[in-house]
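Researcher: Let's walk through a ligand-bound prediction step by step. First, I give you the protein sequence. Second, the SMILES string for zinc ion. Third, you return the three-dimensional complex as structure tokens. Ready?
Model: Ready.
Researcher: Here are steps one and two:
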Amino acid sequence: MEATLTFLGTGTSMGVPTLGCDCTVCTSADLRNRRTRPSLRLAYNNHIVLVDTGPDFHAQALRENVRHVDAVLYTHGHADHILGFDDLRPLSFQLPGGLPLYADDETASTIERIFDYTFRDKDRYPTSARVQIHRIDETPGAGFDLFGACFQRIPVTHGVQTITGYRFGSAAYLTDMSDIPPESVPLLQDLDILILDALRRQPHPSHSHLERSLGFVEQLKPKRAFFTHISHDLDHVVTEAELPPNVQLAYDGLQLTFEIAG
Ligand SMILES: [Zn+2]
Ligand SMILES: [Zn+2]
Ligand SMILES: [Zn+2]
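Model: Step three, the predicted complex:
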């Protein structure tokens, strides 16, 4: 079954342009240097699945004509990945049973705490999102089925935390990661598409940088790799000219097709 993946956003937590910055990337006319907070849309089998809803979700949904969502998967509870949650409200009202969300236990607890008016039994805000949070099995290699495709949690190291990457069919999405633990390496074999964090040129304590991410690509050998969660350190054209032919910088609105099942 073929799926279409759209990068809703490819920027780091501060976004690009970064507020108050006049560097060449932040002032660039190249639209690929305008990076909203990181998130994906997957379309397959007449269903729409999102990975993360950051603070730019409303604008991204308008830009990409997201009119319906069937499920949302979360990677972790940082602001740049969850703060668009409330913009799911009108879309959640379309679904009779509510919108299913999938997250690991720590992320689910963070969402429940920040958006507590949505989840409380008593005095629930009447027009809050109609959602059901499903806590995913955190055993490495465990997966769950969504609309005919299997989603596997891929644990990745993000600074001092372990967060959730996802594999779905022949593609994997590892945003926000500084390292790939040994138990995740076997889960990332035979990929057509590997999407991974490449923040900037210099090392960073919680994010992989360009050279390190190229090392992961060499180790895991996907057919193609796309870097995301990019800061204003990396100009699109300048950086792409330095990359091997099977590696690209993702940009907002970029679409890819791949096999998601069978
Ligand atoms: Zn992030
Ligand atoms: Zn800048
Ligand atoms: Zn993060």
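Researcher: And what stands out?
Model: The pocket of zinc ion (ligand 1) is lined by residues 13, 38, 78, 80-81, 176, 229 (CB under 6 Å). Helices lie at 57-63, 79-82, 89-92, 105-114, 116-119, 210-220, 236-240.
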